[in-house]
Amino acid sequence: MAGLPASSGKTAKPMKFADLGLSDELLQSVLSAGYDTPTPIQAQAIPSVLMMKDIIGIAQTGTGKTASFVLPMIDILAHGRRRALMPRSLILEPTRELAAQVAENFEKYGKNHDLKMALLIGGVQMGDQVKALKDGVDVLIATPGRLMDLFERGKILLTGCDLLVIDEADRMLDMGFIPDIETICSKLPANRQTLLFSATMPPPIKKLADKFLTNPKYIEVSRPASSNLNIVQHKVAVTSRNKKDVLRQLLRTDNVTTAMVFCNRKTTVRELAKSLQQSGFSAGEIHGDMEQPARIAELDRFKAGTINILVASDVAARGLDIKGVSHIFNFDTPWHPDDYVHRIGRTGRAGATGRAFTFVTPEDAEAIDNVEKLTGGKIAVYDLDGGAKDERPAREEKPAREARPSSEARPSSEARPPREARAPREERQPREERPAREARPPREARPTREERAPRAERPAREERPAKVEAREAVRDVPREEAPRNVAPPHVEPKRAPRRQSQPETADEGDWNGPVPDFLRFST
User: Which distant-in-sequence residues (6+ apart) come within 8 Å of 514 by Cβ?
Assistant: First the structure.
């Protein structure tokens, strides 16, 4: 909406919902919900949808995109009748949470219209969904997987669907739903009206739009993948070990009322939610491993204020419209830069302001660079005033080694006197003047080998005859009287006679050992 030139002195009159061509019943529902002025995407899309044109809407999350197709659909579907198993309109959403949120919008704005709606998502009983289809529905809100399942079972017909909405198309691409969407589009009437909304327009989405949309009106309310100007963004340098401490510090000091904390992995969501609860925070969790009733119940607790911190994986990042979220914390830098835009879009919605903090480890340097390239600007670095609680002092604060007295007392090699200035070796105390050890007598005091008694003259061992007598006593006992526990006599093997040691004499190479028997002779 262009304003008048400043030189005219006039200001443009703000557009109201009453100026968009909506019915009185619908306007009453919108005003009772507290809305009076449409957002830019609503102001441009609603009149075109009412004129039955195909739409390509490029708008970042949090701009009121959902109401831009829900409101005109309610007025379009107010005329016509329902038929069994043949929904009159179809809205495709990438996740269960987004589908449930769109259903809430239909209930809120369509309360003055007689419209029936069915929610076709996984995680709930299929029987109730099939029964609703048999009764006939005006609006079918579905995820591609469950819709394809029922279609293959023959439980639904798409030939009567005249209006198709593909919401969060780039998210559909990320989740691998494009083949399913192409199959679904091929089953719908060729002359239908198609509305495609996306935050970005990658080549596969453009190819999809060119194939299934007819002369669409292109609406872009902001630059693709640009971030909301109402959100103050910061990046925080952290390590993997001090992430939790930094998060707790910010939750306590940054005036947080309600916050969503996003993680890349489901296991991290569970661990972080438990850690925050143990630290005294009112925290909940939502991730893909939870059953659908549990996920809806956790979202309801967060919306009602029972908990004010919701730890989530990217399953909850896109499209959730929760009022009053003051802070977004990217506990993990998102792997895909598009996810960054959708995560921080949970705050700063409908003109409100918000704050977003992204934790960046050294390993996240490439990921955060990709985010800044996509958003078209550098994210400001947040100063933690000294860092996280567990930050260690720098190495230069340690005492230097030269401060130790022991190293100062050692003289350097230059300070030592030269070798010539030292005392001569002759002046030193000779080794022989040192006091001798008195523990051992001098070698001369020991008896020489000649003074020792010859081995033959030494007295025989006294225990030897006793052993011989014992053996003979055992040998004399009769065999039958010998006790069983007496060991048989030990017969020592014959040993060679020991050589008689002779006194050592200085010889000239003559034999000085014992004389063998064959050399003995008698005179």
Answer: 499, 500, 502
Beta strands in 18-105 (DSSP E): 55-58, 89-92
Average the pLDDT over 254-263 and give the result: 94
The Cα angle at residue 69 between residues 113 and 165, in degrees rounded to 5: 110
Q: Give residues with Cβ within 8 angstroms of 103, minimum separation 6.
A: 117, 119, 141
User: Residue 254 is which amino acid?
Assistant: D
Torsion of CA 386, 389, 394, 399, to 10 degrees: 110
Q: Are 244 and 181 members of one domain?
A: no
Say how far apart CA 225 and CA 339 lie, in whole Å: 10
pLDDT at 7: 38
Residue where one domain finishes, among candidates 353, 381, 409: 381
Q: Confirm if 353 and 130 have CB atoms less than 8 A apart.
A: no
Q: Name the percent of the chain in helix, strand, coil, to the closest 5.
A: 40, 10, 50
72: CB partners within 8 A, 6+ apart: 22, 45, 46, 49, 50
CA 101, CA 121: separation in Å to the nearest integer? 12
Which has the closest alpha carbon to 318: 184, 197, 148, 207? Answer: 197
- Which among 351, 360, 322 has a CA at the least distance from the CA of 236? 360
Indicate which CATH number applies to the domain containing 107.
Answer: 3.40.50.300
pLDDT digits (tens, 9 = 90+) for 45-60: 999 999 999 999 998 7
Tokens of 303: 């919306």
Cα–Cα distance between 391 and 241 in angstroms, integer?
A: 10
